[in-house]
Write the structure tokens for this entry.
Amino acid sequence: MSLDSITGWLVWVIPLISSLFVPLISKFSAKARNYFVVLIAAITTGLALSMVPGVFFGSGEPTVSSVVWFAGINAGVFIDPLSVLFTSLVAFFGLIIAVYSLGYMAHEEGLTRYYFLLLLFIGSMIGLVISDNLLQMFIFWEMVGLCSFTLISFWYKRPESVKAGTKVFIMTRIGDIALLGAIALVYVSLGTFSFREIIAGISSIPIPTLTAIAFLTLGGAIAKSAQLPLHTWLYSAMEAPTSVSALLHSATMVKAGIYLIARFILIIGPLAAALPYWLPTIAWIGVLTAIVGATLAFYTNDIKGVLAYSTISQLGFMMAALGTASSASSLGWFASLYHMMSHAFFEGLGFLLAGGIIHALGTRDMRLMGGLKKAMPITFILAVIMIITTSGLPPFAAFFSKGLIITSISETGNLVQTIILFATTMLTFAYSLRFMALIFMGKESDHITKMHPHEAPKTMLYPAIVLAILCVVWGVAQPLVASFMHVELEISLVGAFVNLETPIFLSLLLPTGLLIYYTYYKTSSNIRTIVSGKNPITTILSHGYFFDDIYNAIAKGITKVSNSLGHFEDKYNLIPQKVASGFFRFASAVHSSFDVATDQFLNVIATRSISGASEIHKFDVLLDKFLSAIGNKTVSGASEIKRKTPSTSLQHYIAAAVLGFVLIVILIILTMGV
Amino acid sequence: MIEIIDIILPILSLVISALLTIPVFRLIRKSSHKLALTVGWFMAVYAVAGTAVANLALKYYGLESYSVLNFTLNGGALAGLSSSFMIDVISIYMSIIVIALSAIILIYTVFAINSNERPSERYFAIMLMLTAALLGAVLSGDLLTLFIFWEAAAAGAGFLMLYKKNALTINSTLKYLVMIIIASAFVVFGLSIVYGITGSLNFTDVQQALVTLADKRLLVIAFIFIATGYAIESAIVPFHFWLPDAYTAAPSTSAAFLSALVDQGSYYILIRVLVFIITPAGLNWIFMLAVMAALTMIVGNLFALIQTNVKRLIANICVADVGYNLVAITSYTSLGLVGNLYFFLIGGITTALAFMAVGVMNSHGYKTLEDFSGIGRKMPLVSLALVMAGLSFAGVPPLGGFMAKYLVFTSAIEANMSWLAVIGVLTSVLQTAYLFRLVNYMYARKPKDETVINESKRILIPIFILAAAILILGLFPQIVFNLLQPGGNLQLIPPI
């Protein structure tokens, strides 16, 4: 066993095992427990990063190490650029959040549970991305789902948290079942779970079966990565503590779907292009999710809601790029993973800042905010970096990663998708600026003057600063990342500035920026005065400028569309309920029809065979007498109780048994062919 | 070398302890440390019986080959009519889980019911007797011995339901007994035909004779009667109506015991009779059983969906579990059999755990789903155990239920019955839905009253032993597989 493969085992086993010690250590002191978690997260990060050089200077071929788990099924680790990229991201982000939690969660109860689940999540998530077989991957896939569910309902005393957690768990289970179906199909076709053996035997699976496997896998990825039409759970997941949202619902867990598709493309290799409709479906789902997510981010007034919808939109970008990747050497494959990393940095930063703001203001409603620039200057500067990166302005990380994605889409020649993605980047810029304007610009709102906000504590600021630095430098690291992933890039760093997309992109951003500037910044007092009920200044301002009216109208139009989309969302959420109640009705119909059927059956017997009927009847009467005799002796009114309880009567038992007997006879005759 | 005394010893020790329990309780009631002495007495009983089972198991695993061993009480000319015993890997495995589960549930019972009450010693004695009868059934070597021990267990189970005498329990017990009597009449009739055809009741002899049988018309009739009889006893749809009524009316201690032991015993008999005696080579029952399995999974889960009484809901899950077990039997593969035997254990533990937890809640007056609103905050530990049982039912990894369902469905796919696996997976989704409704009630709803409940610590011990067992067996299924396939890949299915 080489050193790298030992590290590959330790990097997920250590956090998993250590999580069990958290409750024990918390018995000694709460502080020791918190620092223990940070220490383990740091060790995990060290282990994860220590695998990077091996892959960087290696050949790009996977290293596998596995042991027998049970009955011919192995457990193992699969070390290649993809898994190490994800492992490093998860471990690093786990460390960031562990440090951040020291400040953010300081005054909460139930922290032992929180830290236990945090380590359990880090271990399971790394286990997911580093597994060398589908079964092990699926078990960890479920375990991260379980961690997500329990962490969303962390404040289990708040009913809405538990409700949100349950909703999320059930919705993502739809995807889990699809994935399980895919795994079962692979196992039936090849008789193995191991990636290596699947890669070796993949070409022997007939294309129709492989297509079914691919689409079921996509179903799993859609649910986990919050893609259309299963995206609504991610907003509900915002009931979780913000640190959890940053780690699970923006940086790592929701990327599991991206990982799954990227891994799947690696496994099936050149066959990806041969599957009918598969790649185009991925691309379209991604593109549509991107634009729908962006419009929803524009519509919500919830500070975490903007970040959640933004995450959905950015995941759409990644999906879209994967949809162009007919093999692992395509530009789209790399672009997606590269953007995955830069998104983790800027969206994670956004969540960390939002956590600080919520911490200071005690609300998530952006309409109550404004003018925070003065009270929280460092947060403001970091937010500016976050906004610039999110919008994809040069020279920060997302400029390069988003640029690659748009290039990969436009290279396929699909004009509609390219235009939609450009529109989405505009909207991204728009909602980012709106986010900025509502929170930081303008005068301080009444709520803020009442709350006296202060800058977040150091333990919360330092992690954010680290992420901000990464946002700035990550873009320049592109060639390094490409050679780490062993991908040949045709586009150089400088090339990104001079190709066709950049001028289009920047010239599109300008009008959007102006639009938002006028509607929100200039009239940001407008938003608040609408809330407080007075708006004399607004009327003057909005009629003072000629442009304002036009822009307002356009903005209103966009808001209207977003609003109606929002209403559609509400209706859409009802569908699962309707399905459930349908099932419920069906079940009670079956139940009562059983009763009716047995009753009818008894009637038929009673009327058809007179002599037989009297026999049965005699038996009944005898039994009833017997029953009430005993019943009366012990407790009065046996028959009364009998009527009240839902229990079935003996006649029904026997009638059903006779039906069953007939069923057995028929079935046996059918099989025997007598 | 295994002697016949090794086999009879565990059964005998339990029967003697059951008889001794009544005078011993008379002594215990005079002392001032009643609870400690009661627990001590039963621990001693189980220490003896457990040692006897362990002795048998160790001797068997010490053998060089794990073959089928037959023993008869009387040799000579009448050997064919004498009671006989047979041990193989499966009966050893069953006797281990019977003794272990019975011990845990009995300890729970001691904590749950007031052992100062007058008839409680009889209740305990019946539990010990039933355990002895079940051990006898899983170790028996011919159809008649099996029938005698099993009917003793099934009929004796009626008296467990009757502990709290009221109109409801009397009504449901009586209905149960009527059904059991009808069932045993069917079985006896079928067995008499089998004896007529083959001239023997010994498992191996009957199996051989049936495979080579030329005219199968009589066998078909015999099979239909035997199948109907055992279908009633193991509550296969549409013979299942007695089960929800009986388990709901019975005290939770009885429901836990019945679901974990008597139910599992009836599945064992289905396996023994269908897979080992009337093999598909003797008579092709696979399609018939597959249809019954599908029906049982669908109806069991649909009925569970509309229940508002939590205990009744769990009883309906017991019915659905029968369906999943049948899927495994239907596959007729070694994997399916291992999966089935693993499912027995996990299903037994899970239902017992659920009944125990619900029993604790019932004892505080919470019965319906509405009553369970917000119970997660009032009784956090018991609720946790119930949620674990629920998640295991729904098949959430890493709990045992996941591995059990996984093995069962895989075996169905291996046997080219993917449609059955698909129905199984779909009904599991339904199961998730109503179990999450339960969790939703327990945690997301506001409680109706603000009463503060002090959870009894003692009763949590057996509950959490079972909860831990679900988790450990789910993580390390190898423990069970090693018991079933001591020499690695052992061929469990008899060659056709």
